[in-house]
Amino acid sequence: MRRPARPHPRQHRRPPRPPPGPPARRRPRGPGGPGLPRPGQRRTRPLDRHRLPRHPHPQARPGQKTANRVLANGRAPVEHGFAHLKNWRILTKLRTEPARATCLLRALLVLTNLEVNR
Hints:
The chain is mainly α. It contains two helices and no strands.
């Protein structure tokens, strides 16, 4: 015969739920519906409170566009290089001092660029 299952000694049993009480009382809804103010009632929180004010210059100026393009052109090769290094997973088990790691990174990036541009 099988014994009834018992919880593990470290497991805690949940306390029993209390019996349900009387239903919660709700405010009567007016003709406006659940989310709208009743007639004659002022809205205390306007809907536009969460919106940020508009930026004075919504479009980037030509100088800003040029600067962004220059930054993106300089950043792209670096991002691609680190993506290749992450795919190779060489840096996860690197156990060397930072000075040698820098030389190793440069060599790996050169090899990666040679491989990509081939």
